[in-house]
Amino acid sequence: MSTTLPKILVTRKIPAAGLACLDGKANYRILRTQGVPSYDEVKAAVRGADAILPLLTERIDGDILDNAPTVKVVANMAVGFDNVDVAAATARGVMVTNTPGVLTETTADFAWALLMAAARRVVEGDRFTRDGRWKTWEPEGLLGQDLYGATLGIIGFGRIGSAVARRAVGFDMDVIYYNPSPLKGEARQVAEDVGARSADFEELMRESDFISVHVPLTADTRHLIGEGALALVKPTAVLVNTSRGPVVDPAALYQALSSGGLWAAALDVFEKEPVVPDDPLLSLPNLVVAPHLGSASVTTRNRMAVMAAENALAALAGHRPPNLVNGDVWKG
Ligand code: GLV
Fold this sequence. Notes:
By secondary structure, this protein is α/β, with parallel strands linked by helices. It has 2 domains: 7-101 and 298-329, 3-Layer(aba) Sandwich (Rossmann fold); 104-289, 3-Layer(aba) Sandwich (Rossmann fold). It contains 12 helices and 12 strands. Strand 10 (238-241), helix 11 (250-259) and strand 11 (264-267) form a beta-alpha-beta unit. Helix 5 (104-119) packs across helix 7. The two termini are 30 Å apart. Bound molecules: glyoxylic acid. Glyoxylic acid binds next to loops.
């Protein structure tokens, strides 16, 4: 491979479609084909790179960037970019990009999968059956909560939140949403189309039968769903989080689920990932869990990899990358 090509550090093996975009255009090195590289491994490996293509499992901060003064772009293969210190990147003139849009529908589908699994006790039913505990049809066995006609509260009515709302129409649900800022573009149209009503945060927590969380992780949203918020919910409510783990306070969630304050929850994301098997939350039968699978369809992961690669290549070619997060660094 030509040494004049720009050098990209790909922190972990990504779908081949993304790597194929880089072929012939960049000299890329995959740091780890299995497992997650440690912070120090990434820090050592970035030296001499022109771009980094990390996943959400790698923290990219000012120290890492100081070790790689040649890096022009951090092309994150995720829509969320809380793993990247954007302020540190901006201060160093480094572009940060993400992968919005391509995973919206896939993640919305998964939020519904979890919502239905928790509402209708699918995982408990599966275990019950496999354990040989199914002796007869029980008139009061494993009763769940109806979706049909219920109120769905969406926290964060952006791309994914509004895609979740669109799917609620088929269940004839009332949709309410809390969004920290006025709705933009397509989300505003969706709210109108599905008749979604804006609510303040407390109102949403009080009125919803199902609560689905779709905010990015920021200083303002960390532990947004904590003891105070969970004290407001209906005891029959179901909470679903497919956004970022730290948006929900795990100790408060444990308390609410184990005391009957909250009927059930489903989590695709955790404060610390991977969640360990002896985490107290995992002892709760009314919690459905998944290992951060929101965007995990074959098509979507391919698209995310391609998008991240194209962002990196655009930045390296001196173009404004399509999904630039920190527009301030763009000098044109
Ligand atoms: C997945 O969680 C993503 O942010 O893309």
